[in-house]
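Homework help board

Subject: predicted structure for assignment chain

Our instructor gave us this sequence and asked us to write out the predicted structure in token form, then describe one feature. I got the tokens but I'm not sure how to describe them. Can anyone check?
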Amino acid sequence: MKRKALALIFALLVSLVVGVQPAKSSSKTIIVPDNYPTIQAAIDNAAEGDTIFVKKGVYVENPVVNKSVSLVGEDRDSTVIDVTAGLKIQKDNVTITRFTIYDGWQGIAILSANYCNISRNKITNATYGIVLVGSKDNSITGNILQSIGLSAAIQLSYSDNNLVNNNYIDSCTEGIQLRLGSSNNIVKENIITNCQDVAVRLLGGYSPPRWYDPSSNTIMRNNISNSGCGTTVYGSNKNIISNNNYVNNAIQFSANEDYLLAWGYNVSINTIKENYWSDYNGTDADGDGIGDTPHILYENNMDHYPLMKPADIPELPNGAGENGTDETEPFPTLLVVAVVTTVVTVVAVILLVYFKKRKQ
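My token output:
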């Protein structure tokens, strides 16, 4: 009887542990440098769906991510990739989070890759920050980009349906650039400040056989301040620019399209409404928070409903603060605790029942 009871307990324990395994039971976690000395070696030896957890340290390399894996740094400020070319993503469904990447031609480049998540990283002292080319449905959130020297901190080319949200961009040549047919993207709740040239640029361009214009993008609830130009539009149509704060930019808005018009193209037509402009001097007689007169921005461009007060936008985006931490754990610690707790509880109940029966 005793042996049968113990066998039953063992069978129940096995069934409990197996029953709570994650759906992707075949995926594994690789630790750098414990299992492999470099990030690239870990990627080369990983399988699709694996997590590569990188401990604190400085890694001098240019990783190429050609598998659907997650790269997770132990601590954003202390897990550093010192690049020259940059980190390149060439596969769908890649996650890069909690790294500092610096001193490269590009920080992170997403090249014809979709459904990737780039979050809570810091990219500094690079020529380009985060670059997307021919990529869609990616999420660029909660990153800090500083001192990006040649072009945009975040640049999209031929890339659609991406979310650029809650990033902090400071002291870069340009902030966010949507160019060459990048359409249906959302640029929301970013802090863009102290850009030498332009904070947000919408830039069309000709590539035979036709003109590619960034269209149907939404630029909303961004803090755009202290830059050479707040927003510039060139050969871009059907975009919505609303509920942004434009504060103390040398030029708040520009749409100089004389060269474009000289080649027979039409002036860009976009929806610009309900933004706050620090240089707006209108009145609000009815007290509805909207200026009584439109704010003239540039020839053929005006905000018909300028805000009298800045929109309420967080000064520091969620996730971009100290160490970029949130409630998400890189390892399933809570799952392990739940398994152990459940097993112990069930074992205690079974043993209690068993010994009660023995006494009887």
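Reply (TA_rk): Your tokens look well-formed. For the description, you could write something like this. Helices lie at 2-19, 39-44, 258-262, 333-359. That's the kind of observation they're looking for.
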